[in-house]
Design a protein that fits this description.
Elements lengths: L1 H7 L3 E7 L7 H9 L6 E8 L7 H8 L4 E2 L3 E4 L4 H11 L1
The chain binds flavin mononucleotide.
Length: 92
């Protein structure tokens, strides 16, 4: 599978989703179950309507128990680019 091949060479993967019903959207769950992310570092990011990550981080840890899940960033739907840039500057 072409997608899986491309992921194969990456050590750090940003995975993003809107918060839907306190967790990631179903296509993201399919992605996590389809692609081999063992040993990879996952940096989650999400947009939300007020609930932050909800239980998304726990769900990442359950779906990807052999990956390293970093704190990542949860941004409210009306976030400013400055907020994102400050996080990127501080964390990367
Ligand atoms: C089906 C659905 C479920 C949602 N559930 C939540 C939720 O549990 N918690 C929350 O904070 N926001 C929730 N939201 C709000 C979305 O996270 C928010 O609208 C989205 O992140 C903004 O990105 P968008 O412009 O791509 O929709 C939900 C939105 C939809 C459509």
């Amino acid at each position: 599978m072409q997608g899986a091949e491309a992921i194969g060479n990456a050590e750090v993967i940003f995975v993003g989703s809107p918060n839907w019903l306190k967790t990631f959207a179903p296509p993201v769950r399919s992605f996590l179950r389809t692609v081999d992310l063992d040993g990879k570092t996952i940096i989650p990011f999400c947009t939300h309507g007020g609930g932050g990550f909800g239980r998304m981080i726990e769900d990442y840890k359950r779906e990807c128990e052999h990956s390293i899940i970093k704190d990542g960033i949860a941004l409210k739907g009306d976030y400013s680019f400055d907020e994102l840039k400050a996080w990127l500057d501080h964390n990367l």
